[in-house]
Amino acid sequence: MVAGEETSGLYNVDIVVEEDNQTLIDWSNQPCVVPYIKGLNMIDVYRNGVLLQQGTYQEYTETSILYLDTENPLQQGDIISIRYRPTKVNLGDLRIVGSYSELINLNDVYFNQLVFVSSTKKFYRYNGTQWEEFIIPYTTQNIGLIFSYEKIVLSDYTNTVKLSKISYPVGSGNLLVFVGGLKVDPSEYTEVDSQTIVFNEELSPGAEIEVLVANTDTWEECNEHSVEYVYDMEGNVTDEIVWAGAIKVKQTHYVYENGNIVQEIVTKNNKTIIKNYQYDTYGNVQKILVEIIQ
Q: Is this prediction's pTM over 0.70?
């Protein structure tokens, strides 16, 4: 028996255990399944309202877990509750290496560990026996999501690191910082401005600081494509259609009033984004109201 719902972005699913010693907790057969992303510590699991430690279960598929605690087996009638936000990604103990050869030679790896390879800008996940490429299905208003990368090797003792190649929006949460290949908790440094990070403790000469910034670049900026335009009788563009060969990637529909665009409807990645534009008396855009329909 499964009951699931999504309220205010938080996804809730409650499963009633059907038999003693049941191990598989699966909610893939419910009407409105919302998968989570394996390996990113996205989910909280409760047994009869008590939060379980991560070692007592294993993420099995994007809509199921395996209960592992043999000393406290599940009983018929127990309620297993799963809580997560489908649009929130927690990269947990992400590591970073320079090449694929460094990746396969890593020691002390563990199941579902994530590693970012800077030379190829790809994520890999350890499935228990080998590394496999891992595509993070970020939920974003853009189709593609890539990462900017910069590496800095310190020449002096300092707690201040300045970026020169990339920047980030301060406080946006899309900055990932690594020291010696290990992810640093955001509480250990301060984002001073868009290119300056100040660590709580001084770092030594030779320390390798690596930074990833998630950039919501559009798919069109990263891939070969063609664009088709549709015009109305007055010469205004009413539709802009982006094609990848014969596949329609995105369509944008424009609605005009008095020569101004008052509504923009973007359809892409199984999502519709509606933007309503409000103007002042001088014809300047004053506010944009955005609605996302998935």
A: no
